[in-house]
Amino acid sequence: MPFAADLALEEASESLDYPLLRIDLSRVSDRAGFLDAVGKALSFPDWYGHNWDALADCLTDMSWLAADGYVIALENADSFANAHPADFAMALSVFQDAADTWREDGVPFWTLVGATDETAPWLRDLA
């Protein structure tokens, strides 16, 4: 993320009093690595099962990190997104479903994807 945009994101998150939860995907090479990186970055509880269902359960609970809203940044997503597009699409679907669930309760839950221009068209196709 460019420095100015990164700073603006931090300031916006702080002004809303929402945690800015960064997940660095630069060293993620497979689904297991993605699930592990998310679990560690979001301090998931010990019962987290490192699978898509467990990810969904944790993302729609977040009781260990109670807040009025959440901003999650999937940073450096290019390598994982391009090497494992089906898994990355599934991950984004789980995050979208979590956002939809939180929205029903009036809680903002935003997931931002940090990727280069080469990956950006692929991400736009998901929208």
Automatic annotation (TrEMBL):
Specify the superkingdom.
Bacteria
InterPro entries in the cross-refs: Barstar, Barstar-like_sf
Q: Where is the Barstar (barnase inhibitor) domain?
A: 20-112
Q: Name one Pfam family in it.
A: Barstar
Hey, which family's this protein in?
Belongs to the barstar family.
This protein is called what? Answer: Barstar family protein
Lineage in the entry? Bacteria, Pseudomonadati, Pseudomonadota, Betaproteobacteria, Rhodocyclales
